[in-house]
Amino acid sequence: MLEVKNLHARIGEKEILKGIDLVINDGETHAIMGPNGSGKSTLSAVLVGNPQYEVTEGEIWFNGKHSADGRLLPEGRKNLLEMKPEDRAHEGLFLSFQYPVEIPGVSMTNFMKAAINEKRKYQGLEPMNAAEFLKLQREKRKIVELDSKLANRSVNEGFSGGEKKRNEIFQMAMLEPKLSILDETDSGLDVDAMRIVAEGVNKLQTPETSCIVITHYDRLLEMIRPQYVHVLYKGRIVKTGGPELAREIQEHGYDWIKEEIGEE
Amino acid sequence: MNSEQQYIDLFREARQTICSHSSDAMNAVRDEAFRRFASAGFPSKKVERYKYTDLQQLFAPDYGVNLNRVSIQVNPYDAFKCDVPNLSTSLYFVVNDAFYETQHPTPKLPDGVVIGSLKDFAASDYYNRLAGESNDAVTDLNTMLAQDGLYVYVPKNTKVDRTIQVINILKAPSQWGRTGDEALMVNRRVLFILEEGAEAKFLFCDHTADDRQFLTTQVIEAYVGENASLDLYCLEETHYKNVRVSNVYIDQQANSRVNHNVITLHNGITRNRLDLTLSGEGAECDCNGCVIADKEQHVDNNTLITHRVPHCTSRELYKYVLDGASTGAFAGRVLVEHGAQKTVSQMTNQNLTATREARMYTQPMLEIYADDVKCAHGSTVGQLNDAALFYMRQRGISLSEARLLLQNAFINEVIDKMQLEPLRDRLHYLVEKRFRGELNKCAGCRLCK
User: Fold this and answer.
1) Strands (DSSP E) found in B294-404
2) A111 and B385 in contact by Cβ < 8 A?
């Protein structure tokens, strides 16, 4: 699904990612944790091609088949660093934004219709007809219990914090990505909203899709159960473990990990 | 530069010809206008109200003027399919400066309503009353040279339900000029008289019917009586070589209502001046402007709203989307005179510059001589929101489509203010086409193909 090799990236003159290696297979869920400023959001932004960040070194490969050792075989894999953000999306990459952007004047329906039809165009399909689209929208809205009134509103404008995050998962449901990155989707959510979001994400997972969950808290991870938990610190993945690692961090913080790697 | 000299010479030489093809009311004010024009000439860019559009330069070329009124071979009913169809309007045509009189099914209008050729109807008690006081060189030039135009009269307490659509077509006479591609000057004049309690809605669509260079001066005077209501939508869809200078003068009596909208969808160089005076208490006006420009296009809207008496309301919203190397200007002034208490006035100008080369000049002004008023003015110039663009791209929407959606969203605010519903729907469609670059000139006009 995804192979990241020795990824370095910076914003302006400031280097933030200092050599990330990460392999994600089909059907896997990975959590990325780490103290503030460690580079979690930068990693997600670089994966989806945010032009604010400059990749200075490394590779990102997407799709294609994995060999026995986890690497992606050259055949059929896509070099994400050579692709525009919209084409990465068409290939099946999705980011649930930490801060979903408000777009006054563009209705949710028009926005979603444009997104769906551009993807279909990329796949060589005809645009979806209006009836089909409305039906799809209705079905997917149910997954995150999103009010149908929001469809006529401008994208994220006047949405509550919870609605914005549920709206992200609704979009994920509509676009059926292969790899979803949830960037602090749990921040600002009450317990019920978090449950709805987590259940929504779980419903959308299949053996062919994968997920990266960026979070500070193990509460979400108890609902979206990752197989792997990575700790990102100062632009590198310094520790990888199972779900128990998230619980340890919740209880003891990051100091013991910093000590392990030889920092005070 | 001394661009005015050729017009001074022209008037001196052709005064007889001009007058012989016009009417007494129009001829009566020519000499006075000429005197003012000859002594003042065109303003330079140092004159505040012409800071952003160089009139000297616009009027410098040698334009032909159809003073002998050579007839123009065109049947607009056959040749024209307007861009705003299905409006079930009462449809009229003005070819250059002349009301199109040829036999056609006359739309049914309420008793007493007159729509016709200005030279047949213009009455000296209204004609040039507002324009004559305006101290504007182009208005004076228009008054000097205009021979005809459109006359609209709606009598007391008469309500015209159907929108009256006037299509202004610019077309050169077929045998015109030595080489067949001479530039042509058109001086069009419009007079609206809405008596007490009268109500009417107008849609003016300006088109060019061939690709010659045109220079149009247009002067519109509108007298809006007590309790009367005027909706005036002016839509310009001309071509890159077109130059338009339009001066609109509106006077509003007590409790009257005016809704003035000017939409520049496609043009060359456009300068629109609006002088609106609230002369009677309780009068209200909405003035909206929508501009979409690219390449080297230039659009300058200059407005002056005068609150002469208490208890009047004015609202202004002008929005521009400037692409390519286009330039836009908005200078809006609201003048609240002594004693015009309880004035409510709101002026907003918002602009989007899509490229580094596009330029916007904006100058909102408030001048208040009363002490109990509520006035606000503001303007912004900005670019498309990068965060929103990226958000859309992450969802698979291409950069060009994302830009289009954002530009549409920006301009829709002002289009949604238009109360003429079919026009509004049509504008949404036309604007989108325009942003896609599919509207290079008036799309509905078979003449220009």
Assistant:
1) 298-307, 313-322, 327-336, 344-353, 359-368, 374-382
2) no
Nearest CA in chain A to B387: A101
Task: Please say if the pLDDT value at position B88 is more than 90.
Answer: no
Are B197 and B229 in contact by the 8 Å Cβ rule? The answer is no
Half-sphere exposure of A9 (CA within 13 A, CB side): 30
Give the C-alpha separation, B172 to B185, whole Å.
9
* Contact with chain A for residue B405, Cβ under 8 A: yes
Strands A54-62 and B257-266, sheet pairing: unpaired
Asked if B238 and B244 touch (Cβ cutoff 8 Å), the reply is yes
Distance CA A189, CA B290 (A): 41
Residue-wise pLDDT for A196-226, tens only, equals: 889 989 999 999 999 999 998 888 888 888 9
| Residue B100: both structure tokens together | 């199109």
Q: Which residues of B touch A110 (CB under 8 A)?
A: 405
What does the alpha-carbon distance between residue B223 and residue A163 come to, in Å, rounded to a whole number?
A: 52
Contacts of A244 (CB under 8 A, 6+ apart): none
b vs e for B250-289, b when ≥16 Cβ sit within 10 Å of the residue's Cβ? bbbbbbbbbbbbbbbbbbbbbbbbbbbbbbbebbbbbbbb
Taking an 8 Å cut-off on Cβ atoms, the answer to whether B405 and A106 are in contact is yes
Query: Is the pLDDT confidence value at B105 over 80?
Result: no
| Gap from A50 CA to chain B (nearest CA, Å) | 7
Phi, psi angle pair for B155, to nearest 5°: -70, 170
Q: Which helix (H) or strand (E) holds A135?
A: helix A130-143
CB A49 within 8 A of CB A83: yes
How many beta carbons lie within 10 A of that of residue B363, not counting itself? 15
| Residues of chain A found within 8 Å of residue B385, distances taken between Cβ atoms | 101, 103
Closest chain B residue to A176, measured at CA: B395
Give the containing element (helix H, strand E) for B216.
Answer: strand B214-224
φ and ψ at residue B320, rounded to 5 degrees: -125, 140
Nearest Cα residue to B67 out of B16, B123, B140:
B16
Q: What is the DSSP letter of B212?
A: S
A159 burial (CB, 10 Å; 0-12 / 13-18 / 19+) is buried
pLDDT interval class at B78 (50, 70, 90): low
Q: Which residue segment(s) compose the domain that A110 sits in?
A: 2-260
Average pLDDT rounded to a whole number, residues B383-400:
95
Q: What is the pLDDT of residues A20-62, one digit of tens each?
A: 999 999 999 999 999 888 999 999 999 999 999 999 999 999 9
Both tokens of residue A29? 């869920």
Which residues have a Cβ under 8 Å from the Cβ of B206 and sit 6 or more positions away? B168, B170, B216, B234, B235, B236, B237, B238, B244
Contact B114, B151 (CB under 8 A): yes
Q: Which two tokens stand for residue B398?
A: 């291409």
Structurally, chain A folds into a number of domains equal to 1
CATH number of the domain bearing residue A16:
3.40.50.300
pLDDT at A228 over 50: yes
Report phi then psi at B431, rounded to 5.
-65, -40
List of residues 6+ apart from B103 with CB closer than 8 A = none
In this prediction, residues A121-132 reach a mean pLDDT of 93
> pTM of the predicted model, to two decimals?
0.85
Cross-strand pairs, B233:
B203, B261
Copy the structure tokens of residue B231.
């909706």
Look up residue A185 and give its DSSP letter: T
Query: What is the identity of the amino acid at A58?
Result: G
